[in-house]
Amino acid sequence: MLSRKSKIRPPKKNLSNDVNFEKSWSILSQSIDQILNQNASNLSFEELYRNSYNLVLRKFGKQLYENVKNQISDHLLGINSRILLNKDSMVKVNEIWESHQISMRMISDVLMYLDRVYCKENHLPLTYDIGINLFRDKIIKLNDNKIGNHLNYLVMEQITLNRNGLITDFFIIKSILKMFEALIEDELNLENGENFYLKYFEPFYIEKTHQYYENISLELFNHGNGSEYLNKVNDLILNEENKCILYLSSISLPKLNDLINKILITSKIENVLKLSNDGLKSWIQHSKQDELSLLYKLLKKVEYFDALIAQINEIIIDDESLTLREQLKQDEGKKSKIVTIAIDYIGQVIKLKAKYDTILNYFQNDPILQRNIENSFIEILNSKGTKISEYLSYFIDEFIKKSKERNDDEIEEFLNSSIIIFRFIKDKDLFEKFYKNHLAKRLLKNSNDLEKLLISTIKNEIGSSFTLKLEGMFKDMNISKDLSAKFNHKNFQINILTKTFWPIQPNPSEIILTPVLESLQKQFNQYYSDLYSGRNLSWLYNFGTIDIRIKFNKKIHELNCPTYCGIIILLFEDIEELTFKQIKELTKIPNSDLIRSLLSISVAPRTRILTKSPMSKEIKDDDIFKFNHNFSAPMTKVKILTVINKIETDQERTTNLKEIEEDRKFEIDATIVRIMKSKKILSHNELLVEIVKQLKRFKPSPQFIKRRIDNLLEREYLKRDDNDRTTYHYLA
Amino acid sequence: MTETIREQALVEDLCMACRVGDIENVDKLLSMGANVNKVDKFDNTALYLASLCGHEPIVKLLLQRGAVCDTDKYEGARCVYGALTDKIRKMLISYDISKAVDTNLPFASHFRSLFLSRDLLSEDLVIQLGDNSSAIERCHRFMLSARNAYFRQKLTTTWKHANYLELNEEFPDELALRCIIDHIYLIQDSSKFGRVNKEKLLEYAKWFQLHEFASEIEEYLKISDIKERSKFMNELQVKVFEDARIDFKLLVDRGIIANKLEMPIDQKITVDQIKELQYETSTFPDIVIYIEDEYQGKTVYFPVHRSVLVRVEYFKVMFGSSFSESQYFEINQVLDIVDRATLIPVINLPVSSIEVAEIIIKYLYFDHTDIPEEFAIDVLFAGDLLLSDRLKTMAAVTITRSDQQNSYGYDLYDILRAGWQTRVDRLEHYAARLIADDIDKFLVDPRFREIVDESSKRIEKRQETDTIELIDDIRFYLAKKWKIDFDGLFEGETESADFLAKLPGFENYQTDLDKIEILLEDLQLEA
C-alpha cells in the first residue's frame, strides 16, 4: 500500500475515450432483443448496465437513445403484423401488453444511466415511457386506430352482452381499459395529459350506453305500468352500479351514473308519474309505500323533484274536490247546521293531512316536499275564502264546550290538529275575530283550562302579538274574580271587561232595573269609581244572569236566567198580569231582546215561568203575560236559556267581515307609515314587498294595498315623487 | 399482519382523538398500546396534531407517554412551529430532548429499515418471539451476529443450520425479547421501552451479553425525572449508534476484508471456495462480489450482504429486476426467507481497484466517508456508476480539500472534465477558482485554450448569446480574488459603476477580464 502512494495512478480507466459504440451497441441490441422476446433470465444486469453506462459517459447517449427507440419500434411493428382482428384480440393484445410492460421495465432498468443523465439533461421522455408510447403508436393506433377501434368494439360488445344477462370476463375488460388509461396522448403534458381511454374509449362507451338505456327505458315506459317502471329502473341502476366498478375507470363512474340516472329517471319520470292506471295518483290514493319510497329514492339520486311536486299539488287539489267540496255544497244547502259542517270539514282536512303525512314519511320526510305539500294545503284551504277560519273557530268552540268528556289523548290530538289547520290559514286575523267571539262567550259562561293551553299553543306557533288581546281577556276574568271577592256581596258577582280586548260593544240604551238591582248597581258603581277613578263602567245586561228563588205552588225553584229574563220575572212580584207593551215600558229592554227573553220564559216548553195569551210563537203588543204559579220542573234548579236568533248570527258574521276589513285598513296604514317613516323614499314595488314581509296575520291583495296607499296619499302622509310617479316620499 | 393493521388502526384513532381534543380517548388508546410516535395516513404524528389544534393537556400527556419532540428534526420542528399557543410551544421545547444530536445517521436508518420494511427479501432466519404463532420476526443472521456476541457464538455452533429459532420458550417475556431484537436492529421504540418490564429486559440483556445495554438500563432505572429520562434515552440512542458503527467496522475488517480471497486475474473462483466463504465464517454473506484489479493483476472476492449493497441504487435495481443476478436465490416458501442451502452468487463490482472496493464497502456498512485523495477520482466515478450521489459528494469533498492543484497528481483539467462527466458542480467551481487564482499561468497554457473550447461545446447548437460556463465561473472567482463585490449593486447605475471603479482591486480585475476577452477573440468565441 505504502509503495503505491508515491506513484499515483492517473484515473485513466474512466477518463479514456476508447469505447467502441458499435461493439457495445451490438451487445445491448442483442440483449434488448432477448428481453423483448421474453428470453432474458440469463442476461447479466451488470454487463448490460456497464455497457450502457459507458456509452452515455462517452457522449453516445443520443445514438443509444435513438437506436433503442428504433429497435423497440421495429419489434412492435413486427408484432402488429401478427395480430388478427377477431374475437380473441382482447386476450391477445392484453398478453402482448403485459409482456411489453415487463420487457420495458427490464430495458429501462438496464438503461437507468441513460434515463438519469441523457434524458434528464435533454428533457426527453424516459426509456420506459418511450416503450409505452411506441406501443400506443405501433400497436393500438397504427393505421387509423385499427386495433384500438376493434378493441373498443369488443369491449363494448362484451359489456352489452353482460347488460343483457350474459356472463362476461370482466378481468380482461378491466385489463384492456387499464392499458388504455396507461397510453398517454399528450407526451409533452404528462401530468394532466389525456390518455387513449379518455380520448377514444370513454366517448364511445358513453354514446353506446346512452343508446342502450334510451331504448330500454322507452320500451319499459311503453308497458304503461309505473310500478314496474320504478322497480325495473331501480334494478337496472343497481346492476349497472355493481357491474361497472368491476371494469370501468373511476374517472368514468360519475359520468356513467349521471348518464343512466338522467336517461332512466330525470327524462322519463314526469310521464311515468302521469300514467293513469298505475302512476302517482293511484299510489297516493292507496298510500303505496313500496312505490312511493322507491320513487323518492330514485328522485333523491338525481335531486329532481319538480315533476313530482307539480303533480302532487294537482292531486291534492283534486282530492279536495272529491271529498271536501261536497261538504261545502251541503253547507250552502242547509245553513242551520254550520257547526256540524265545520266539524265535519275540519275532520276531513285533518284526515287528508294525516294521509299526506304518511306519504311524506315514505318520502323520508324530505323538507322540500313537505313544504310543497303544505303549500298545496294552504292553497286549497284558503281558496274557500273566509270559511276555513270560521270552521276552525267553530270546531274549537265545539270541542272546548264538550271538553270535559274528553281524555288527554283526545285533547292532545285536538290541539295538534287545530294548530296544523291554524298554520294553513292565510288570513289569521279573520280567524282571530271568529275565535275571539267564541272565546268571549265561553269565558263569560265558564272558564276552562283547555283555553289557556290552546292560547299558549297558538302563541308558540305565531308569537305573542297575535295572542295579546286574547290573553287580555283571560286577565280580565282573573281580575274580575278578585274584584267580586273584594266587593264582598254574597249575591253578586261581576266580570269587568276591558273594552278593547273583547269583541262586545256596550249597549247604548239604558233599561229600568228593579229597585233591588238598581241599588246594587249603584253600590257597585260607587265602589268601582272609588277604586279606579276615571274609569267608566258600561253594563252589559245581556251577558249576565240572575238567580231567583220563587215559591211556586208545588215547590220552591231556583231559576238561573239571563238578566233580561230576570228583570221581567221580577216585574211579576207585585203584579199578576202585564201586556207586552207594558213590560216594554216598565223595563225599556230593546225590542228584539225583549221578544227573545219573553219567548224563553213563556213559550220555550220547559221554562214557562209566564203564561202567554194567546199562546203563540209570535209576540204582539197586546199579548198578555201572567205569572205561572203552576210551573213545575223535575229539578230544584232550573236553567233558562235565551232563544237564539239565527238571523242575528248571520248578521254577526257579516259585521265580523266588515270589522275585519276595517281592522285591516288600520293595520296596513300603520304598516305603510311605519315603513315609510324609516325609509323616507321607496318605490311602489319595494314598498309592496316590505308590507307583505311585515304583515303576518293576513295576506292582503296588491289592489287592497294600493287603495290604502292612495288613501294615505290623499291624507298627505305620503306624496309621489315629482319625476317618478311610482316612487313615494314620506311626509312628516 | 392483522396485528400491524390493528396497530395502525390504533394510531389512526389516536391521531383523530388528538385532532378533536378527546383526552380520555387519547389516554385509553395509549394504554391500549397505540404507538405515540407513529404517523397517521396523512403523515401527521399525534403530537403535531395535538399541538396544532391547541389541546394543551393532550400535548402534555403525549410527551409524558413518550412522544418525541426533537426540534432539530422535521417532525419536532413542525410541532413547535405549528403549536397553537405559546404555552404549548414552551412545553414542547422544554421536552425537546436532542438539541444538536443527529439521530438520523444514514447507515443506522438503513439497518433499521431492513427490519421495518421488506423491499428486498434477504432475511435468512425466523425467530419466534411470543407464544402467539404470529409473533415471529424475520431476521438477518449477519445482523444478529455482527451486533451481538451471544448470537454470533450460537449461530456459528448450535444454531448453525437452524432456520427457525423458538426463543419464546427460553425468553417468555415477548416485549422484553422484542426490545432486545430492536436494540440489535438499532430501533429505539420509546413507547415499547416505556411499557416493557425493565427487570426482565435487564435480565435478558445480560443473558445476551449486551453488557453496555444492560448497564444503560440500570442507569435509566435510577432516573426518575421524565425529562431527564428522555434526554438519557436520546443519549442512549446515540451511544447505540456509535456502538453499532464499531460493530459494523469489525464486521467489515474481520468478516469481509480479512476473509477476502485474492486470486490471479485469470483464475476463476471454485465452488468450494465460495462455500468456504459462505459457511465457514461468522460473516453470513449472501453474495460474493469480485473486483478485477488490472493494475495489481489480481481478482479479489469479498463475502458481503445484499441488504447492505442495496444502499446504492445500482444494486437496488439489480436485485429488484429480473436479470440473472436476482435469480440465484431459493426462497423457503414456508418461512418466507432466503434458503441458506443455495450456493450464493458471485457478481462483479465494476470498480477499478481493490482499494476503491474496500472504500465503498466501508462506506456502505458504516458510513465510512474518509476517502483517501489518491482514490477520490475513482470513488467519484464509482459513485456515478453505482448511482450514489452521496458517495460522489464525499469523493468530491476529498478532491476539493486542497487549494493547491496537482498535490496528488490529478490534472486540474481532468478534475474539471470529471466534474462535467459526473455532474458534480463542486468540482467545476473548484477548478474555476484555482484557474482564477493563477490566471496568467493558465492563459499561456494551450490545454487551457482547449478546455475553454470544450466548455463552449458542451451546449448543443450554441447560440451567440449563450455563455461559456467555465468562463463565467472564472470571472466570478476573479471578482472574488480582487474583492469586487457586486452584491447590492444594480447593473447600469453609474453610481455603482463609479463605486466599483474606485475599489482598490478594480484595475487588476479589469486587466484580467481583458486578457480573457483577448483569449476568447483568439478562439473566435463570444461570451
TrEMBL record, chain A:
InterPro entries attached to this UniProt entry: Cullin, Cullin-like_AB, Cullin_CS, Cullin_homology, Cullin_homology_sf, Cullin_N, Cullin_neddylation_domain, Cullin_repeat-like_dom_sf
GO annotation, cellular component aspect: cullin-RING ubiquitin ligase complex
UniProt xrefs under PROSITE patterns: CULLIN_1, CULLIN_2
GO molecular-function terms, A-Z: ubiquitin protein ligase binding
Keywords carried by this UniProt record: Isopeptide bond, Ubl conjugation
Gene Ontology terms describing biological process: ubiquitin-dependent protein catabolic process
Pfam families the UniProt entry points to: Cullin (PF00888), Cullin_AB (PF26557), Cullin_Nedd8 (PF10557)
Signal peptide: none
Domain Cullin family profile: start-end pairs: 387-602
Recorded family membership: Belongs to the cullin family.
Name this protein carries in UniProt: Cullin family profile domain-containing protein
Species whose genome carries this gene: Wickerhamomyces mucosus
From TrEMBL, chain B:
The BTB domain, residue ranges: 123-185, 285-373
Keywords: ANK repeat, Repeat
ANK repeats: 42-67
Organism: Wickerhamomyces mucosus
Pfam families named among the record's database cross-references: Ank_4, BTB
InterPro entries reported in the protein's UniProt record: ABTB1 (IPR044515), Ankyrin_rpt (IPR002110), Ankyrin_rpt-contain_sf (IPR036770), BTB/POZ_dom (IPR000210), SKP1/BTB/POZ_sf (IPR011333)
Domain of life: Eukaryota
A single Gene Ontology CC term: cytoplasm
Name this protein carries in UniProt: BTB domain-containing protein
